[in-house]
Write a structure and sequence with these properties.
Layout (H helix, E strand, L loop, with lengths): L2 E2 L5 E4 L18 E8 L2 E6 L2 E9 L3 E3 L2 E4 L6 E4 L3 H22 L3 H23 L4 H21 L7 E2 L2 E2 L7 H16 L6 E12 L6 E10 L4 E2 L4 E5 L15 E8 L7 E11 L14 E11 L10 E6 L1 E3 L8 H6 L6 E3 L5 E10 L2 H7 L1 H4 L4 E3 L15 E11 L11 E8 L21 E3 L10 E9 L2 H4 L3 E9 L7 E10 L11 E6 L1 E2 L9 H5 L22 E10 L6 H7 L8 H7 L5 H6 L1 H14 L1 H18 L9 H10 L6 H14 L8 H8 L1 H19 L4 H19 L8 H20 L5 H13 L11 H14 L1 H4 L1 H21 L3 H13 L9 H25 L6 H24 L2 H9 L4 H19 L9 H25 L7 H16 L10 H11 L2 H16 L4 H15 L4 H22 L3 H16 L5 H7 L12 H5 L5 H27 L4 H18 L2 H17 L3 H12 L8 E2 L8 E2 H18 L3 H17 L3 H20 L2 E2 L3 E7 ...
């Protein structure tokens, strides 16, 4: 039976458990489990990581741990009772483990490995903590180390800052918010600004000495040297090196490593150096023979220096190779380091380039204890400590030193009868009082142990040697008395014996007769003659002699031998036990000379502070002993000395001695009667403050009042303990009298800043500590009253610059932090005083930093609500400070943030501290307190002001920059307080601001606050890791849902007042609903229904709601908000979970459901496109999907929303995408969208995007030049020509002939490029996107894509699959069914298609170069074909053509290719089946056309090789392959077929005519072939001629049977220029001219701006075994670059590229980066050549036609377009409307156009800007705006595109309108508004939108008209057709 557990609640898994039993819970080792029930050795529970999955597991697998249970029952929470540090380690390492693996995946190897080491280190430390066998100090060190590592890892991984106190995490609910803020701020500041260490240490390690000629051992002495004061500041470090230059004792690391300790900050300067003096141990003269002498001498070798400043920036140990310099003159050796530092190069020289001293140096910062912890690796081995000379900057109590430093300075010696100077060596001995040498107390340096003696180095032949050599004598205190130093002087001979002969000695006692040590300074010692060492055996013999010349008394007749010789030393004592100060000794021995007490006390102030603190306890005992001896006589003097000692400890050098004094007061002070005298003298000083002229001594007394009161209190306690608390009342009265005097001088008001003011400030600084001392003997209430009276006695009005203001606040801050305030009994006494002072300063906005600290300290007390009086205190604080506090926060946040970093940090601290105070106050308020707070506002205006201020503060709190990014804990606490306050204030809003009291500002501020609250990043739980999300939800819940429900509730209470808020809140509400939280969306989306309903009732529509939604949606989506779920929720048809129905369902119940559903559908569609756009842009690559998505969104803004500005912005984005992808043609078309919206006017346009403020003319000019440049880069020169003409017309209008000339030259260069440069002909592919996984703009749609250069089907298919890696390629061309459409997958269907040109005029003209024709084949294409052959009925095996049908699919696009995108959607799909007979006719017709083209090329010498014509002739004539025309005769001319298909009579006749025509073409082709065929191909030609006769005979055709038009010469221009006649006339090659024109009539004529193009036919092949004749069913020949690329037969595989036509490189095929040019503006040239047809001449009034209309040949009439207005008087127009029948609209543009704009890079108005050619002048008059706004009509003219048919001229009538029954070009299709072919469409000038326009100046005089005809005159006042008003863009 399962029983709930009582104690077994929490455990850790010991081994893996698979959970194979029924209801088993799989476990992994290390998992933590919470146990719910138990049953016979089994537990039931869950893993804490996944509490939703519960199961059973064996109890033996679990190690139980102690835990606390909260909320016992179903929702109980189990918290393990373990060290908080261990808990944090466990939680943190789990989070790190997941992120650590991600670092590896992101290839962040450095952080990956560093984190790995830190994690291992933390685990090792965790084990030590768990073991628990550590001392308290060691445990604290480990915990501190752990928390430091945890903080480092959290910072590196971007995790939150953890608030800690005493190494443990704190619960934000258990401490006040101000304390939480201070903990966070302290940790953040410590991390950002590391503390500055006051102590520094230099680590040095000697590695080797590098030299090429070393042969002797070396002694190296290192020291830290101050070059400014020219003295060493540290002891010496001594290293011995062997002959190889390595340390002699490598196993003893202390002999090669040292730490120069206790360097102060002042020692780290540029003029402080590490100096190394190097001495060699060997012969006297380097290089002398060994036989000369075997004695070893210490001789100077070299010196090296390095500046300490070079080590300041290095955080790690760095190796240095120090250069070694030798002294040029040995006598200057003592100054060599100074010469090197000062770079006196004449006195030293570099020893050699191969010589150097290799050392390692590192600066360490902090005290020694911290250094040992942080740099354990340095101290893992022994390291010698090299101390600083003298005491360090901070003297540490308890430190014992008794060192005397002796420096051998110099000597003056006689020659002693020698011919040369002596070689002097000094030997130093330390002898005790018994005359024996003290062993091991002479230290040359810290690296080597002490020795019995020290031998100096020897200077060669010098009677005045200077050594500057230092030794240290660490003499124990007990041995110091009676010791002396003896210096033996020897001459070192260089003879063979090498003896060292004694010639004298000196000595000096270390203790003087009066008991003082040897004084510091230089001492000139007497050199006593001595030649035998035995004479020195008894020191008593020479100690009676004078040691120094200063000790020889005047008049002393004692003779001194050889007084001319002297020896100088310098001594320095560093002792904590001995003093050299006589006054100090006299004071300490005052009982010996009681008559000198007054003098000793008077001299005490002159004694060095170091001497006083060394004997602090003795000094204090002396002072109080003197005071007890005679209080009346010495009381004032002792008091002054005591004040001097107390203030001495305020110095930073001696501040560590304060604990020594505290310890003395507590444990050693025995002056039980001293308090009376101390109080008496202190009151005496205080009473004289106001009248005293000099305040310095009084200020010194008050400065030490803290310790004075400590002595007073301790003395009274000692007296009370000794006497049984006698004289209590007397003491109390004396204290009160003292404080009365203090209150009197504090209340004194001074004018300005006076000395008394400074005295008041001095006392206030120490007053809080005085109060704390009084608490030891008085009750807390009594002390609180004293403090209150003292603080209240301060003057209220002071000078604005008086320092007393800040001091008062500092005093208050210390008081608030003292026990006097933390006690509730005293707090109620002090609180009114503190609040009054704070209110005054906050009101005046002064000393805000101190005010914030005080208020924060007050609120740091987390007052329990059950405490008596707590509620009253909170109410008192709120009543006093709430208003002024809110105003202060607003004032501070509105100030400009200071630039200085220190001030900026202070600014942030003040703001954060005040905000934390507000939060702390609000958290302590309950319902009752809120009611009391709000009831204090008597009027509605005051309440409104308070609420608005509070809401503003909350918005400031929510700002991202309020707290650092990683302060999530602080933000969550703040949000919890905010939401609680909002819930409390909701009732206030409903009760006070509704109905007639409605206040718009309050409600708007309330809703804005709630919306900002929901949107703040720290509440977006979806972005958190699971563990963090779980913690937040458990502690606070989802606060977004809570505030969302409150928003909904408050909105419902508004009633009719909702109308006032709809316009301002619709956008913010949209932003809130984009938060990906389903409950929140379900709550808030119905508000949109309410808004729409209210707007409908008020205005009859909700256009305002729709417009606001749309405007806001784009910006929010671009910020990354919103998702697919939100779209479905917004437009949901199926029921959703949650308390509210979907928005669509609510709307469907309303009367306005249709418009409502339409609105929701519009917003939903926009959302779909924005989501698709955002997803595509995340990839960052320019591909078809990204461009297509942008085009889709751009068109939606234009067509459905009519949002001009957004439309233009996305034009620019699309333009940039094209440029990035090098789609220059598409980029040009895109920029045309903007260009088409502008007119050639002088209206000013404001600055927009990257465009400067300029006129419309200038911006349009810039756009033209940019578009021309991009068209040129895309090799679309035909379009460049049209734009050049338009610009040229403008320049001509303004008489800007310079730029006109250059523009014409540019136009001419484009003609050259067309004829001379090669262009590639792209292929086209049909792509179908099927499945629900595709984006909305692609889903279940088909597109035609323009391929890249050289791209075949396989490459294109691979590219599409790479763009959609999850897509499945379909292997058939059949249309997919609904199963594929609705599948949750992606299916791609791709196959090649053939373009169908709209017009064949250019392509069918003979003589037009291929360079030109190829452009029209693949540009401006709307329709594409795909043929699929199949057999219907029974297939005839002997002749398959009888049943070979063709299924032809024609795809019509929404926009032509190329355009603004490389692919466009298929708008219309037509499926037609062609019968075998029709297929045969088409195949023969195509082959005939191919033959004619090849023959013409051969005749015109355009073919370099005749092989294409040979192959084509062979393929048609040779019937051995596929039977040729005989198969068609057999199939369709048989009597059975004719009789069975009477309806095909015309088609059979047509087929026969085509055969006859082909036969004639073959005959003519053979004649041409014979003329040009090479000799080696003559046999083939003869064979072809024979086969042709056979074929002609099989057709039953005789030569005389050809019709007359067949026997005519086939090519009229065979012997002349092809340009002599552009109009095709009936001839033998074109046997039926009228028929051809008739066929053309059924084609689509795009209009006068459309380029004519030829139809690219596609049909089946003649035979399945066709080889040379055809390559597939299209009849395409691979041998000719003129043959059309027909659609390959899908009978094999349409998805293979084997049937993609060969990608020939033609000189005319456009590249993938081009687009179709402007239409037949190419016929606008003004030519004087009369041979040109009239349609090729410029049609304008300026250049009339040179030919008379009567001279024009009109072979036949065809319809003429009249849909466009004529701009010129001489343009031909149709006579009747009947000609317009069956003619499609010629304009590719709709007459009503939406505003369009485009983005280009920043351009100046100059026509040359952005143009690589650089040929335009920059002085266009159009730029200056000095002319009128007339526009030339040259670019507006229309010409007839009647395929070469010229109509007679007549008087220009009004432009006729298109008849109503005229057929439309493509049904209801709207041509693209961005086509180049729209250049001539009429425009209108519309006023600018007010928000986007630049207001014209009304003061400027009107400009003179431009010197040309205006537009109205140029078109003879013709009305322009504007069926629909069109807005012209002003952007």
């Amino acid at each position: 039976m399962w029983i709930p557990t009582e104690h077994e609640k929490y455990g850790v898994v010991l081994a893996n458990f698979r959970g194979t039993v029924q209801h088993g819970l799989p476990l992994e080792i290390g998992d933590t489990v919470q146990i719910l029930e138990k049953c016979e050795g089994w537990y039931r529970g869950f893993i804490t990581k996944n509490p939703n999955l519960k199961g059973i597991f064996p109890s033996s697998y679990i190690h139980l741990k102690n835990a606390d249970v909260k909320n016992k029952g179903q929702f109980e929470t189990v918290i393990p009772t373990e060290d908080s540090v261990i808990t944090e380690i466990t939680m943190t390492l789990r989070d790190w483990g997941t992120m650590w693996k991600q670092l590896y995946m992101k290839n962040e190897g450095d952080l990956f490995h560093r984190l790995w080491h830190v994690m291992n280190e933390i685990l090792e430390l965790r084990q030590q903590v768990l073991v628990g066998h550590l001392t308290h100090d060691r445990m604290s060190d480990i915990k501190q180390h752990i928390t430091a590592r945890l903080d480092w890892g959290n910072e590196q991984l971007g995790l939150d800052l953890v608030p800690r106190r005493d190494f443990g995490m704190v619960d934000p609910d258990e401490i006040s918010i101000t304390e939480l803020y201070r903990l966070m701020e302290r940790r953040h500041r410590r991390r950002d600004i590391p503390p500055q260490a006051s102590m520094h240490h230099l680590f040095l390690q000697v590695k080797s000495m590098m030299s090429s000629n070393l042969g002797e051992e070396l002694d190296v002495f290192f020291s830290v040297y101050d070059s400014r004061e020219m003295r060493p500041i540290s002891e010496r470090f001594f290293v011995r090196l062997n002959k190889q230059g390595l340390p002699k004792s490598p196993e003893k690391t202390e002999r090669q490593c040292t730490l120069f300790v206790d360097l102060g900050s002042s020692d780290l300067r540029k003029d402080v150096y590490v100096v190394a003096h190097i001495f060699r141990i060997g012969r006297m003269v380097a290089g002398e023979k060994k036989s000369v002498s075997n004695t070893q001498y210490k001789r100077p070798y070299g010196c090296a220096v390095i500046s300490v400043a070079e080590l300041l920036t290095a955080d790690f140990k760095d190796d240095h190779l120090l250069k070694i310099y030798s002294c040029n003159t040995e006598s200057e050796w003592s100054q060599i380091h100074d010469n090197i530092i000062r770079k006196v190069s004449s006195r030293y020289s570099h020893i050699g380039s191969n010589t150097g001293l290799n050392v390692s140096l590192q600066l360490l910062h902090g005290d020694m204890e911290q250094i040992r912890k942080d740099y354990m690796r340095l101290f893992s081995r022994n390291v010698s400590i090299t101390k600083k000379l003298g005491f360090s900057d901070i003297i540490i109590p308890g430190e014992v030193r008794n060192d005397i430093y002796v420096t051998l300075e110099r000597g003056e010696f006689e020659k002693g009868g020698k011919s040369v100077a002596r070689n002097v060596e000094v030997t130093v001995y330390l002898l005790g009082g018994d005359g024996q040498v003290l062993k091991g107390l002479v230290c040359c340096g810290s690296g080597e142990p002490g020795e019995d003696e020290h031998r100096s180095f020897v200077l060669y032949h010098s009677n005045s040697p200077r050594w500057a050599e230092q030794v240290k004598l660490p003499i124990p205190l007990e041995m110091f008395h009676g010791t002396h130093l003896r210096f033996e002087l020897r001459h070192c001979s260089t003879k063979e014996k090498g003896e060292k002969k004694l010639f004298g000695f000196s000595f000096v006692p270390l203790m003087q007769e009066d008991g003082r040590p040897l004084p510091d300074g230089t001492h000139e010692l007497i050199v006593h003659k001595c030649e035998e060492t035995a004479d020195l055996q008894d020191p008593a013999r020479y100690l009676r002699l004078p040691s120094s010349k200063a000790s020889i008394l005047p008049g002393n007749n004692q003779t001194i031998k050889n007084s001319k010789e002297s020896f100088w030393i310098q001594s320095s004592l560093c002792s904590t036990k001995l003093t050299q100060n006589g006054d100090m000794l006299d004071l300490l021995k005052w009982r010996v000379h009681p008559d000198r007490i007054i003098d000793c006390l008077a001299k005490m102030k002159d004694i060095d502070g170091t001497e006083i603190v060394k004997f602090l306890q003795d000094t204090l005992d002396t002072l109080f002993g003197i005071l007890d001896e005679s209080p009346q006589r010495f009381g004032l003097k002792v008091f002054d000395c005591l004040v001097h000692v107390i203030n001495l400890l305020q110095d930073s050098k001696f501040q560590l001695f304060k604990p020594v004094m505290d310890n003395y007061i507590e444990n050693h002070f025995a002056g039980a009667l001293s308090y009376r005298d101390l109080i008496r003298v202190l009151k005496w000083y205080v009473d004289r403050i106001i009248d005293a002229e000099h305040q310095e001594q009084i200020q010194q007394v008050l400065k030490g009042s803290e310790y004075l009161f400590k002595y007073i209190v301790q003395s009274r306690r000692l007296y009370a303990a000794a006497t049984g608390n006698q004289n209590e009342e007397e003491f109390r009265c004396s204290i009160h009298e003292l404080f009365k005097s203090i209150h009197l001088f504090l209340s004194h008001e001074s004018k300005g800043i006076s000395p008394i003011t400074h005295t008041q400030a001095v006392f206030l600084r120490s007053f809080p500590t005085v109060c704390c001392e009084l608490l030891k003997i008085f009750s807390i209430r009594e002390v609180a009253n004293l403090a209150r009276d003292t603080l209240s006695s301060l003057p209220t009005l002071t000078h604005t610059d008086c320092p007393l203001q800040a001091v008062k606040l500092q005093c208050m801050a210390k008081t608030v932090e003292s026990p006097l305030y933390t006690n509730p009994e005293s707090r109620c006494v002090l609180l009114p005083v503190v609040l009054r002072l704070l209110h005054t300063h906050l009101q005046e906005q002064k000393e805000l930093v101190l005010c914030a600290n005080i208020l924060g300290s007050m609120l740091t007390l987390n007052i329990p609500t059950t405490e008596c009086g707590a509620s009253d205190e909170v109410n008192l604080i709120m009543e006093s400070l709430s208003g002024v506090l809110l105003r202060t926060i607003l004032e501070v946040t509105n100030r400009p943030q200071p630039a200085a970093s220190a001030l900026r940090l202070q600014y942030q601290d003040v703001t954060g501290e005040f905000v934390a105070c507000v939060l702390a106050l609000l958290r302590q308020l309950k319902d009752k307190e809120y009611q009391q707070l709000l009831s204090r506002f008597p009027t509605k205006d005051e309440l409104t002001s308070f609420l608005l201020q509070l809401f503003t503060i909350f918005r400031i709190l929510i700002r991202p920059d309020m707290f650092p990014k990683d302060w999530t804990v602080m933000r969550l606490v703040a949000n919890n307080v905010i939401i609680t306050t909002i819930l409390y204030l909701s009732d206030t809003l409903r009760n006070n601001f509704l109905n007639e009291k409605f206040d718009f500002k309050v409600w708007e501020s309330y809703f804005y606050l709630c919306i900002i609250f929901i949107n703040q990043p720290c509440l977006q739980l979806e972005m958190f890791p699971p563990s963090k999300r779980k913690k937040v939800l458990e502690k606070y819940g989802d606060m977004r849902v809570m505030i969302g429900c409150e928003i909904f509730s408050m909105w419902q209470h508004l009633g009719d007042y909702k109308l006032n808020l709809i316009s301002t809140l619709i956008g913010p509400f949209m932003e809130v609903t984009l938060v990906p939280q389903m409950d929140l969306r379900n709550v808030l989306i119905p508000i949109f229904h309410d808004m729409m309903d209210c707007e409908q009732q008020r205005s009859g529509n909700f256009k305002q709601v729709e417009a606001k939604l749309i405007d806001k949606l784009d910006g929010l989506m671009s910020e990354g908000k919103g998702d697919e779920t939100y779209r479905e929720l917004f437009n949901n048809i199926i029921p959703l979970f949650g308390p509210y129905p979907s928005l669509l369902k609510k709307i469907e119940r309303e009367t306005w459901r249709e418009s409502g559903i339409s609105n929701i559908a519009t917003v939903t569609r926009l959302m779909e496109r924005l989501l698709d756009y955002r997803d595509c842009m995340k990839i960052g690559e320019v591909d078809g999907k990204t461009i297509g998505c942008t085009v889709n969104l751009l068109n939606f803004y234009k067509t459905e929303l009519n949002k001009e500005e957004m439309y233009i912005r996305y034009i620019h984005k699309l333009y940039e995408l094209h440029l990035k992808g090098q789609n220059y043609t598409e980029a040009s078309y895109t920029l045309l969208l903007y260009d088409e919206l502008l007119e050639w006017t002088e209206r000013p346009l404001r600055e927009f995007l990257t465009y400067p403020m300029q006129s419309e003319w200038q911006r349009k000019e810039c756009l033209h030049l940019t578009i021309i440049h991009n068209f040129d880069r895309g090799k679309c020169w035909e379009n460049c020509i049209i734009l050049c003409r338009e610009l040229a017309n403008q320049y001509e209008t303004y008489y800007d002939y310079r730029n006109l000339s250059k523009m014409r030259m540019m136009e001419a260069s484009f003609y050259d490029k067309i004829m001379n440069q090669q262009r590639l002909e792209p292929e086209f592919f049909r792509v179908g996107f099927y499945g629900k996984k595709f984006p909305f703009f692609l889903r279940n749609k088909e597109f035609v894509c323009r391929g890249n250069d050289y791209e075949r089907l396989e490459a294109f298919q691979q590219r599409m699959l790479s763009e959609f890696p999850h897509a499945i390629a379909m292997q058939h061309a059949n249309m997919p069914d609904q199963t594929i459409h609705q599948a949750d997958a992606q299916y791609l269907q791709i196959y090649a298609v053939s373009p169908v040109p709209e017009n064949q005029d250019v392509l069918q003209r003979d003589g037009v170069p291929n360079n030109i024709k190829s452009f029209y084949k693949v540009n401006h294409i709307w329709r594409f074909r795909y043929d699929r052959p199949f057999h219907k009925g029974t297939k005839d095996k002997e002749n398959e053509f009888k049943s070979l049908w063709v299924e032809r699919t024609t795809l019509t696009l929404a926009q032509s290719l190329p355009g603004i995108s490389r692919w466009f959607e298929v708008e219309k799909r037509e499926l037609v089946e062609m019968s075998p007979l029709e297929n045969a006719s088409e195949v023969i017709e195509n082959k005939t056309l191919q033959l004619r083209t090849l023959i013409a090329q051969c005749q015109m010498r355009q073919m370099l090789n005749i092989n294409p014509l040979t192959m084509c002739l062979n393929g048609v004539i040779d019937a051995a392959v596929n039977g040729g025309l005989a198969r068609y005769q057999e199939a369709f001319f048989a009597k059975d077929y004719v009789s069975n298909h009477p309806e095909d009579g015309d088609k059979i006749t047509r087929l026969r005519e085509l055969m006859f025509e082909q036969a004639h073409i073959l005959e003519f082709g053979l004649a041409v072939h014979e003329k040009f065929v090479p000799q080696d191909m003559k046999p083939l030609h003869k064979k072809l001629v024979d086969q042709f006769h056979v074929m002609r005979s099989s057709l039953g055709i005789q030569p005389q049977e050809f019709p007359p038009y067949v026997r005519v010469s086939p090519l009229h221009f065979a012997n002349g220029s092809p340009r002599t006649c552009r109009t095709p006339v009936p001839n033998a090659i074109s046997p039926e001219g009228g028929r051809i024109v008739t066929r053309r009539r059924f084609g689509t004529t795009r209009g006068p701006l459309s380029y004519p193009a030829v139809n690219r036919y596609s049909s089946s092949s003649l035979s399945s075994q066709a080889s040379n004749e055809v390559s597939n069913i299209t009849g395409q020949s691979e041998s000719s670059d003129e043959v059309f690329n027909m659609q390959p037969s899908p009978s094999t595989s349409s998805l293979s590229s084997n049937h993609s036509g060969s990608h020939n490189v033609n000189s005319s095929a456009p590249s993938s980066n081009r687009a179709s040019p402007l239409p037949s503006d190419k016929h606008k040239h003004s030519r004087d050549n009369a041979c040109l047809s009239p349609r090729d001449r410029l049609c304008s009034g300026m250049f009339p036609s040179p030919l008379d209309p009567t001279q024009r040949m009109i072979p036949f009439q065809i319809p003429v377009d009249t849909s466009l207005p004529r701009c010129e008087p001489n343009l031909p127009t149709p006579e009747t409307g009947s000609l317009c029948k069956n003619v499609r609209s010629l304009s590719p543009m709709p007459t009503a156009r939406s505003p369009q704009k485009s983005m280009v890079p920043p351009l100046t108005p100059s026509p040359t800007d952005g143009l690589p050619l650089g040929i335009l002048a920059s002085h266009s008059p159009a730029r200056s705006g000095s002319y009128s706004s007339g526009i030339s009509s040259l670019s507006r003219c229309s010409v007839s595109e009647t395929c070469g048919i010229d109509l007679p001229l007549s008087d220009p009538p009004l432009p006729p309108s298109v008849p109503a029954d005229a057929p439309i070009r493509r049904g209801s299709k709207t041509p693209p508004p961005y086509s180049v072919y729209e250049r001539n469409n009429p425009r209108r000038a519309t006023p600018l939108p007010h928000s986007l326009s630049v207001p014209p100046s009304t003061d400027n005089p009107s400009l003179t008209a431009k010197p040309q005809l205006n537009r109205t005159q140029r078109i003879n006042s013709e009305p322009r057709h504007r069926p629909v008003p069109r807005k012209v863009s002003q952007l």
